[in-house]
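Example record for the data management plan.
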Amino acid sequence: MKKCLVCLVSDQTIPNITVILHFEPDFLLFVTTPLMEGKGKTQAILNTLIHRGHDYLERHARVEVQEDSLLGFESAVSRWISQAPEEYDFTVNLTGGTKLMSIAAYDLFSSFGSEMVYVPIPRNEFLTPFPKRRPRKPTPLKARLSVTEYLTAYGFTVSNEAQLAGYRKEAEAREVMTRFIFQNYEALFPLLKWLGNELRPLKSNQVQKGYDFSGIFQISTDVEAEFLKNLKFDKDGDRFCKRIYKTDWTYLRGGWLEDRLYLAVREALPSSANVELNVVCKDPKGNQNEFDVLFTLDNALYLVECKSLSASEGGGEKIGIPEFLYKLGALRQSFGLTPRAYLATTADSILDKSGQVKSHLIERAGQFSTKLIPLLVMKDIEGFFRNEFSAKS
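Corresponding structural encoding:
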């Protein structure tokens, strides 16, 4: 007899995906609602499975029910079972749906002697709660979703998936330079500010095939001279010239900080983590979103936003904290995407006189499950992330 896994569809798609990957059933029965279908939740699950090499497009059925009707649930699902082309051995994932849907699913499928499983979010294991007098030990769920798979599970489409490996490779190739900039940031600040002001007015299409940059800057430190030499700028007195390509243009306008956070997360986290940078994706409404650094660990999503502005560049508390928190709140409220977030910045005016992050900023960020990383006083970024995730290593 073929195996059929019954999935109750809700905003939380990950438990259904990991349970499907665990059992690898022959057929999927999604019990869903008009609201969840309107949000595309079932299709998001199917798309994520395809990404993992499990195509259920021709091996699934959807039954829509009213989430608040026990009798309606039983009637609709029983009708599907009676009309199914063959008999199935059912396993039921009770995790999703509403509480009434879970009750109805248990009531209906217990008469079939079906196995019932439940995933206690956010743990990566499932419980087998029945029979009550012979409880089993929790069963580990081994599947771990990548950043792209996690976003797909919530209805997002990664637009630049084919470029992500290249971004990682570029960041790793520039690692020595990136660490040099971070270690000498305060000494390099005037030069970085000058370069940013010179390059910021340029457009992406101007640098796509190379742009002959030329500008005047008076070097005042050996660190500045070493930086420009390492970047292969030609020098003629106080004039510096270089053919700038898009990768240089992005890097020198602040991309180096994104690289630095990517390198820190990659080094600090266990190999089971998936870390990406410069992810561009469309949300379920078609709006484009850009993320500096994203990573998944144990089927949870984390976001790192990087800001290299300083107070003298219009930064400080205006570095985008309100805008970032608003964006994060919209992701959670509109699409159920709930990453824990970090905002890493070199701005000095987020600090009080004692060099600590201002308490009202900590409180505001905390309301959005976000931590501020003050890079001017926190030099060991790897250590910060190791401490954050030491229990998961």
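Summary line stored alongside the record: The chain has a mean pLDDT of 91.
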